Amino acid sequence: MKKELISLKKIIILAGALCAYWIGAGFATGQEVLQFFTTSGANGIIAAVIFLALMSGLTYILYGIGQKKKFGNPYDVFEYYCGKVIGQVYIWYTVVLVYAIFVVMLAGAGATINQYYGIPTYVGTGVIALLSLGTVVLGVEKLIEIIGVIGPIKIIFVAIVGVSGIATLINQPNLLSEASNLIPTLGFQTASSNWAWSGILYAFLALMVSIPFQVDCGASAKSLKEARTAGLIGTIAFTVAIISLVIAELVYYKLIVGQQVPTLAIANHISPVLGLIFSVLIVLSIYSAVASFLLVTVRKFAVDKTKKFNTIAIILTAIGMIFGGILPFDKLVNILYPLAGYSAIIFTCFIIYKELRVKNRKFDNEVEVDIN
Fold first, then answer.
1. In Å, how far are 78, 88, 226 from 297, measured between CA atoms?
2. Containing domain of residue 145, as a range?
3. CATH assignment at residue 260
4. Residue 364 counted as domain residue
5. CA–CA distance, 294 with 320 (Å, rounded to integer)
6. What is the pLDDT of residues 36-80, one digit of tens each?
7. What is the pTM of this model?
8. Where do the TM regions start and end (predicted)?
9. Burial 289-302, CB ≥16 within 10 A → b, else e
10. Number of domains in the chain
11. What is the 8-class DSSP label of residue 72?
12. Please, what is the Cα angle at 221 between 230 and 281, to 5 degrees?
């Protein structure tokens, strides 16, 4: 039996790419984690474990199927699991969802950079748009390599904030229970009133926007074992980042009241240098997410590194820059996001059904061979 190839460097890059894809501006600022996890108090940590349990299995399957099937177009995975008709519905729904989020992030990029550095909004938007476009036209493999390096850097600095929170917690062990009791009363927005459902919902939202990207990452691996290992490590590392931020936000809950960017407030409290690094990290998070979402959208229409691909990428970037601040894409995303959670649950049922059928068919064939 041929031994499967494993490259530690490749595993780290593919795992890091998944982390960089998921760690967008919402996560890097701390708002995403705050609303989905921290507002549940200490139960937010358990919700993160629920996220880990769900996403570990799903990334294992998606990275694996991407490597095994090597679809010409990553969106073909929807037809593979759901059939032609339902698969097409999922394909176009995902394209609209991902592009809507791309436009929202691009529109917000300029405002975010203006807030941190005083650079004119249109300049910030233009810089992020051009950097993202330049990365995307280099192709899938190059984008994975670039954001695969950025991902682990993000995890490390988020973990530093978490370690600082743990150190504070060791000296003041009552802080956790104090924060858990008070944080629901401080007026923070929350994704759900139920902590378990928050973890489940976050998992399925993360799934729905990342399916084609995970399939592309899996196809980039040199072996099935390498693909599945990368998917698992990426999910575990991302969960560590979630738990680190939950602990930090609970420990420093007094600092983040009324703050739009909790991580920056916490980082500045720990060290002004760390605060500066986090402001850069947020910009990197915007760039890597915008580039990834653009690539995933364009991959529906063309193979990367072709003239058609580059043309579509340029057109979609231009549309995002022009109409991002005009069209009500925030309302569109508000409609699409809840639907994304439920549609991802249904898609997961299709995945489980298909995987069980394949396993049963394989088992029946093995039994038939043994009998013969």
1. 15, 15, 26
2. 8-357
3. 1.10.4160.10
4. no
5. 10
6. 999 999 999 999 999 999 999 999 999 999 999 999 899 999 999
7. 0.89
8. 12-30, 42-63, 90-113, 119-140, 147-170, 195-215, 227-253, 273-297, 309-329, 335-353
9. bbbbbbbbbbbbeb
10. 1
11. S
12. 55
Q: Which residue has tokens 């915008």?
A: 290
CB atoms within 10 A of CB 322: 11
* Greater pLDDT, 117 or 38: 38
**DSSP 3-state of 79:** helix
Over residues 100-126, the mean pLDDT reads 82
Q: Which residue has the tokens 């013969």?
A: 372
The verdict on residue 239 lying in a domain is yes
Residue 269 lies in a domain: yes
CA angle 233, 237, 239 (to 5 degrees): 120
Is 367 inside a domain boundary?
no
Q: Are 206 and 26 in contact (CB under 8 A)?
A: no
**C-alpha span between 163 and 241 (Å, rounded):** 11
Q: Please compute the mean of the pLDDT values over residues 244-270 and round it to a whole number.
A: 89
Residue 270 CB contacts under 8 Å (≥ 6 apart), including other chains: 160, 161, 164
| Residues 181, 168: Cα–Cα separation, whole Å | 18
Instruction: Write the DSSP string, 173-192.
Output: TTHHHHHHHHGGGTT---S-
Q: What is the pLDDT of residues 171-182, one digit of tens each?
A: 888 888 898 888
